[in-house]
């Protein structure tokens, strides 16, 4: 049939096999096994009981917009006004709306790679030309972004998509790197879309990763995307937001109206309750810190495996020497060893030869799964 086609997800291919296979530890999705916060669940039920089931303000409930603005102002170095907040139906919807508002067919969109595949596909659906700049491995820091090469690639580009902390590598840009990226974007006249969904999951003792919101001015050509999915453990709720340049929120709202016409008000009430409880993010951060430690312990000393504990996000991105078909390896790990991980090729050619493990799981699951992964890699690789 004559429909638009985009590349299918190799992660889903692994997941479908895992769903059909008994006794598999499921580490291939970017999702925790922990329940969503009780305060969010209670707020949703109360909102439904109160009759909050009608069409919402497409910009988002005023209370949620104000709560997000206050949260960001408290977290970052520069204030964020409510007039810049646009609520969206998930972080992915926020990225799609950002793309729809600035990208036209034939324009170039640059993103760093390995990258979450949905971002590039959102640009391709706009008819954009997607170009990737590889994150380069670094023994000390895990990965690095070559800023000189980025400067050259952004000549004539329409947008650069930044994801820090990064899915799948955990790479996290420093404040100095963000200043350089913003300066390049300004000089080249390029829009900067910053995906900061893992902002609160960093492991250096900071409350949050360095953010474009710390340094950008309200009028900069910058859109920051975020979501309740990760730090607030609300993956299935499909609730996110955009921070847009001052004065553009109502124009962006028109695009939201034409895209998904707003978000259920009872879901937004759940987001308000979750964001107003700082203990949720703190507890989940501690949970991920434990998972990160267990992953590192299991992978240390494993012959032929290259791994540096990530500074951010909740993934172990494992380089495996000699592997040229990470999808085949991931499928074998499901079928023969009972552990599902994401193949590196799912995140672009720069990810081939690697595997991604989501360590945001309970300690019991992590201990069992990492034993299966460690043993499975030894068998499959003959080491």
Termini separation comes to 47 Å
- Rg from C-alpha positions? 20 Å
Q: What's the CATH superfamily of the largest domain, by name?
A: Type I PLP-dependent aspartate aminotransferase-like (Major domain)
The SSE order reads HEHHEHEHEEEHEHEEEHHHEEHEEEH
**What general form does the structure show?**
globular
Overall description:
The chain is of the alpha/beta class and 383 residues long. It folds into two domains: 10-35 and 279-381, Aspartate Aminotransferase, domain 1 (Alpha-Beta Complex); 38-276, 3-Layer(aba) Sandwich (Aspartate Aminotransferase, domain 2), CATH 3.40.640.10. 40% of the residues lie in helices and 16% in strands. It contains twelve helices and 15 strands. The chain has helices at residues 10-19, 38-49, 62-75, 91-102, 117-125, 147-153, 175-188, 249-259, 265-275, 278-299, 326-337, 363-381, and strands at residues 25-26, 85-88, 108-113, 129-134, 136-138, 142-144, 159-163, 191-195, 222-227, 240-243, 305-306, 315-320, 339-340, 342-343, 354-358. The chain has a seven-stranded mixed β-sheet, sandwiched between helices. Helix 11 (326-337) crosses helix 12. The longest helix has 22 residues, at 278-299. The radius of gyration is 20 Å and the shape is globular. The N and C termini lie far apart (47 Å).
Identify the notable features of this structure and list them briefly.
Aspartate Aminotransferase, domain 2, 15 strands, alpha/beta, 7-stranded mixed beta sheet, 12 helices, 383 residues, 4-stranded antiparallel beta sheet, 2 domains, globular, Aspartate Aminotransferase, domain 1
């Amino acid at each position: 049939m004559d429909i638009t086609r985009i590349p299918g997800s190799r992660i889903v291919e692994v997941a479908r096999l895992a769903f059909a296979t008994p006794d598999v530890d499921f580490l291939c999705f970017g999702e925790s096994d922990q329940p969503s916060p009780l305060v969010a669940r209670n707020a949703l039920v109360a909102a439904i009981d109160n009759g909050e089931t009608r069409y919402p303000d497409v910009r988002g409930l005023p209370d949620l917009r104000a709560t997000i603005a206050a949260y960001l102002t408290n977290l970052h170095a520069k204030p964020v006004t409510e007039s810049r907040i646009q609520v969206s139906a998930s972080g992915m919807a926020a990225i799609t709306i950002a793309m729809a508002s600035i990208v036209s067919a034939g324009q170039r969109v640059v993103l760093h790679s390995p990258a979450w595949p949905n971002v590039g596909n959102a640009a391709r659906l706009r008819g954009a030309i997607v170009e990737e700049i590889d994150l380069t491995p670094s023994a000390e820091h895990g990965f690095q972004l070559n800023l000189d090469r980025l400067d050259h690639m952004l000549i004539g580009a329409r947008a650069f998509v930044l994801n820090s902390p990064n899915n799948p590598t955990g790479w996290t840009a420093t404040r100095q790197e963000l200043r350089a990226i913003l300066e390049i974007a300004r000089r080249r006249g390029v829009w900067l879309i910053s995906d900061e969904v893992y902002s609160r999951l960093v492991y250096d003792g900071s409350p949050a990763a360095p953010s474009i919101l710390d340094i950008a001015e309200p009028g900069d050509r910058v859109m920051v995307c975020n979501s309740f999915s990760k730090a607030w453990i609300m993956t299935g709720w499909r609730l996110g937001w955009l921070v847009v340049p001052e004065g553009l929120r109502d124009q962006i709202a028109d695009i939201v109206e034409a895209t998904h016409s707003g978000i259920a008000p009872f879901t937004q009430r759940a987001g308000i309750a979750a964001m107003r409880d700082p203990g949720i993010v703190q507890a989940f951060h501690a949970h991920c810190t434990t998972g990160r430690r267990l992953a590192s312990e299991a992978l240390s000393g494993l012959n032929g495996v290259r791994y540096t504990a990530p500074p951010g996000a909740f993934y172990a991105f494992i380089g495996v020497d000699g592997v040229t078909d990470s999808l085949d390896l991931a499928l074998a790990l499901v079928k023969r060893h009972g552990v599902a991980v994401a193949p590196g090729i799912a995140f672009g050619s720069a990810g081939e030869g690697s595997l991604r493990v989501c360590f945001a799981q309970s300690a019991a699951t992590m201990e069992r799964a990492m034993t299966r992964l460690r043993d499975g890699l030894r068998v499959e690789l003959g080491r």
